[in-house]
C-alpha cells in the first residue's frame, strides 16, 4: 500500500486525468468553459488534520448537487429524522436525478431520496428561517463553520443561470405541491435550492465537508454540530444514492460515501479516517466527473479505503 | 455497549418478537403455516468462531432470495466481474423485486442488479456445468463448504411450489430472452434458480454465509474460496440492494450488508467482525422479516456494528 | 327507433338520472356543491336547427376540458395542422388526463394528444394574440360566434380556483418548457388555459359546439369559420381521446365524437346529423359524467347514431 | 371525386409505391425477403360485391396482427361482450404493441385492448374448442366462410418462426398468468395465437374481412354470422387501436376502421360501403405498411370515405 503523500497524489492525478476526455463540461454553468475540461484537483484531510493536495485543487466550482448533503444535515437538525422522512424517502432508485415519473408512481407519495432533485427541493423547503435570505444565511454560516472558510459565497451568475434553466426543477416542485408533499411556498423553496447550488467551493472546502461527516460532526474548533445518528443517516444515503444513477457502481468500486455534483465536484467521506474533495469538470451522461470518478476509485484501491473490504476494519 | 452473549441475544429476541404481528407468513411456501408466524431465531458467529444463538435458531426455512448472493459468488468465480456485469447491472432501483417494467426501460438492456429476480435468474444462467443437475450440485457443494453443513438439501415440496407458482419468474426470463440478455436455455436457468431457492437452512447456516463474506472468503478449513474483490462486490451490492425496496432503509438503520428472503430469513455480514443469521417467517409487504428486521436493527445499534458510524472504524 | 322529441328526451333523462349516484361532484369547482349531484340536462340541435331540450338544461357549468376542442380549432386556424402537431401528438394514450410520466417517455418529445392537459396547455400557447387578454378575447369571440350566445363569460371564482389549484398544470407546463415543447411564456399559457376552462355554458351552448363540428364549421349566419379538414381532425381526436381514459369505452358504446369536462359537461357531435350538449355534474374517477355518459349511450342506441353501425350510413 | 375503377386504383398504387422506400421488410417472416420491399397491392369490394384490384394484389402474406380482429369476433360469439371484456380492456394506449410494462400498471389488471399482443393472446385463450387443433379448425372455418376462400391455410415455416421468435409473447402470456388474467393453459393459448398469425392471405381475402365488418356480418351466402353490436365493437376498437401506436394518426388521416399486421397487410372497413385489402411488406418502426398506409390515406381522401367528414353521411 502506497503512503498517502503529496507525491502519491500528484501521480494519482496524472493517472486519472486522461479520463477527462470521456466527459464534457456542463455548458449550463456560466463560470465554465471548454478550457476547463482537463482540470483535475484533489485535497485529502485526515482525521488528524493532515492536509494533502494536488493538481488544480484551488479551482473554485459551484456546489451543485453536493449541496444536497448540507441541506439534509440542516433539515435533520431542524426537524429530526421522523419529520424529514415523512417528506422524502431514503430508498435508492435507478432513474436520472431529475426524473419526474417516479413522483407519479402510486407506490410513492414522496421523492425516493434526498439526493435526487425533487427530494433535495423538498428537504430545502424544511430548512428553518423567517425568509429565504435568513434561511440561506443559516445554510451559509453552517457551511462556513464546517469548512472553516469565511470567504464562501454564492456566485451571482450561477444563481441567475439556475433560475433561468430551472424549468425542470420548477416542474418537480409544483408536482410535489400538487400531491401535498411540498407544503411551503414553492418559489421560495426553489430560490433557496438555487442559491445553495450556487456557492463556490474548492477541493479543500469539499474535503472539509467529507471530514466533518467522517470525524463525527465536529467543527475545527471542536464543537459537536450534528449528532452521530444524523451523520450515519447522511453517509448511508450518500453510499446508496450519492452518485446519481451510478451509485451502485461507486458503492462497488469505491466503497465509501460520496456525493457528486454536475460541476464535476465530488465529496468523499471515509468514516473515522478522512475527507476527500475532488474537482474535475468533465462529467459523464449520468452527471459524475469522469476523471474525478477514476481518481476516487484509485484512491480507494491504493489506500485500502473500501468499507466492504476486511482490510479497512478494526478486526484485521 | 452490551456484551455479545447468549443472554443478550435472548433479550434481543424478546424485544423483537412483537414485530412479528406486523407481518404475515408467505402462504406460497408449502412448509410454512400460520403457526410459524411468531417464530424468531438468531445465530451470530464472530471472526474468531465464537457462536451465539437464541430463540428458534434451529428452524429450517428455504433460502429463497438469500440464494442470490451465493449464485452471484459462483458466477463471479466462473466468469469474472466483467462478464457477469455485462449480463446484469449493479445499480439499486426502487421497484419491487419481481418488477418487469424496469426490463423494458430503454435506458437498461439488462436487469438493474443481481438481487432482484430477473438479475438473479440471469446470474444463475451463467453458473457453469454440463446440466442443471451438475450445476446445482456445484452450487450445493459450494454452499456446504461455506456452511460446513453436509446435510444441506433441497426441499422437494418447496421446489415443486416454486415451479407451480413460477409464472412471474418465467415471464421475466422469457422477456430477457427476447432482448438477448438471457442467452442460455430459459427453462434450465429457471430450473436451477428454483432449486437454489428451495434449499433448507437454519440460522447457523445463514450466519456462516455472512461470516464467509465478512472474513475474507475463507472456509472453515482455511481455504480461500473467493478472492477479496469479489467479496467486496457482493457485500456492496447487498448493502445497496439486498433488502428489496427497503434496502435504503436498512442501509441507514442497520448499516452493514444484509440479504433477505421471503421465507423471513436474513443474512447479515459485518466486514471483519461477524456473520449473522436470522429467521423470522412473518414478512412485510416488501418481503422482509418484520421481527427479523427489528432484531437486526437492534443488534446494529447495541453492538455498534453500523459501518457508517465512526465507532466501527479502525480510527477511533 | 323512437322519434327524437322532447317527450323522448324527458324519458331518457329519467332513465339516466339514477347513474348520478355512482359519481360525485367535483369539489374543486367553487360554483358546485353536493346539491347539484342529481342534476341532468340535455339539448339536441339537429342539422336543420330543430332544438330539443329536457331536464336541467339551463344549468350553467364551467367548460373545463370541453374547452380543449375550441382551443384546438383556433390553433389549427392560426398555425395549420403541421405546426400544431409539431407541438402535440394525435395518439390516444391510456393514462389519466393530468399524467406527467408520459411526458418523460423517451419515445415522445411532446404530449400524446390535445385532449390531455399537457397537450391542451401546449395548444393554448399557440393561440395568437398580443397579450393574454387579446388571446382570450379572440377565444371568447369565436365561442360566441359558434354558440350564438353573446352572454358567454368567464366565472371569476372558477378562474381563481383554477389558479389556486393549478399546481399540477403548472408542473406539466414547466416540464414542457424544460424539454423545449413549450416555447412561449409558461405563465401566460397557463393563464389563458385557466380562463378558457372557466367560461360558463349550458346544454344549448355545448350542443351548438357539437353542431358546429357536425355541420361543417358553419356559424348560424352561414359563415364557414373552419375548413372541413380541420373539423375532421378535431372530431377524430375527440373519438379516440375525448373522454379521458374511457375514450375507448365511449367509442364502442356511443360511437361518435364526444368531449367531456370534469364539470360533468359532455359535447357530442354526430357528423352530418346533430350536436348534443349534456350537463350532469356527478363524475366518475376518470372525470366523466356518470349520468351524462349513460344518457349519451342511450341516445346513441335509441336514435341509431353509432357511426360504426351500418344503420348510420348512406348505404343502408 | 374520382370514380372507383381499376384505372383509378392503378394510379393510386403508382402514387403510393414510392413510400415503400421509407420502410423495411420484416426479417422475422421466413417467406419474406428484401425483393418484396416494393410490392404493393390492393383490392376493394363494395357492398354490392363489385371487385376492383390493382398492383400485387395476388401476393400472399401471413395475417400477423390482422388475425386479432377475427379472434375477437370469435371470442365475442363464444362468450359475449361482458365476459370478453373482463379479460381485456377496450382502451387505446400509446405504447408499442408488445409492451409489457402496461401490464404491470396498478391501474390495469388486464391488457389495454385486444389489438395489442397481450390482449390478443388473452382473447385467443377464450376461443372455444376441446384442443388447440379443434380451436384452430373453428378459426380457420370461420375465416374461410368470411373470405369465401376454401384454400386458406397456415404456412408451416411462418408458424415455426412464430414459435422460435416467440419469447416476448411467451413473456406476456406468463405475466398474465401470474396476475390471473390468463387462466387457461399458457402454451396452448400461445400455440393457437401463433397459428392464427400464420395463415396466408392475399388482398382479396383481407378485403373480404373488411367487407364482412362493413356489411353487417353477412357471409357471401347471406347468412348472418355475427350480430351487429359485436361488429360495431370490433370496428370501434379498430379505429382507436387497430394501427398500433399510430392509430390516432390513421383515425385523423383515414377516418375509418383499419387493422394492420407486420406483414405489411392492412384491412380497411368502411361501414355500409366497402371492404379494403392492402398488402405492402415494407413497414415502419411502428409496424404499419408505409406504402400501404399512404395508399389507404389517398383512398380515404379521394373517395371521401372519412367517417368524420360530413360528405360521408346520410345527411348531406
TrEMBL record, chains A, B, C, D:
The keyword GTP-binding does not apply. It catalyses: L-glutamine + H2O = L-glutamate + NH4(+). Substrate binds at residues 65, 117, 162, 169, 193, 244, 262. Keywords: Acetylation, Hydrolase. Gene3D superfamilies: DD-peptidase/beta-lactamase superfamily. GO terms for biological process: glutamate biosynthetic process; L-glutamine catabolic process. GO terms for molecular function: glutaminase activity. InterPro entries: Beta-lactam/transpept-like, Glutaminase. Its EC number is 3.5.1.2. The keyword Cell membrane does not apply. It holds the Pfam family Glutaminase. Belongs to the glutaminase family. Homotetramer. This is Glutaminase.
